[in-house]
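Recap quiz, item 2
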Amino acid sequence: GNSVTQMEGPVTLSEEAFLTINCTYTATGYPSLFWYVQYPGEGLQLLLKATKADDKGSNKGFEATYRKETTSFHLEKGSVQVSDSAVYFCALRGNTDKLIFGTGTRLQVFP
Amino acid sequence: AAGVIQSPRHLIKEKRETATLKCYPIPRHDTVYWYQQGPGQDPQFLISFYEKMQSDKGSIPDRFSAQQFSDYHSELNMSSLELGDSALYFCASSFDRTDTGELFFGEGSRLTVL
């Protein structure tokens, strides 16, 4: 079945550091890929998405490229801020219409 | 812009009691999804509805039931509550059931079972 694997957290960075959160997937066919963010005490918000191979999703300085050859959708940001501290979930939506989430990666950014 | 509304935001129940969570999707969204997120866990899919009919079922206990009403709002009913049911319950809605569409999530209902 379809599944998503994310790197374990927490990821702890200093402000302005470079961020990478790894995400790989297993899926039948050609799913769409998403990154959702959950700030403390809040719900899930879509951060970015990519719907086909080689697409790059971007938002708020975050980027992720849909790599079919490596079945990956790694999240990157060039310079993180304290306000980026949150839990980040990689997710896919494939031949069934529900979202399947990875286990989430907690990011902690310190000044 | 209107978002997905969930109520109540917080709920405290005793073991073996019953709880009902409500979800009001974004207007014109015809599909509703329910997810359960335990402490430190990823959201787990419970059940979904499209045009008031159940469209998919995940890891939903038999003690739980849900339905979508004619105005597209949905309710999740949980009976014989157990300690392990303590979680954040998310509702999401969508107007696009293709794999490219986004799910829009509410802020969640936090259930605590004592």
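The radius of gyration of chain A is 13 Å.
Chain A has a mean pLDDT of 93.
End of item.
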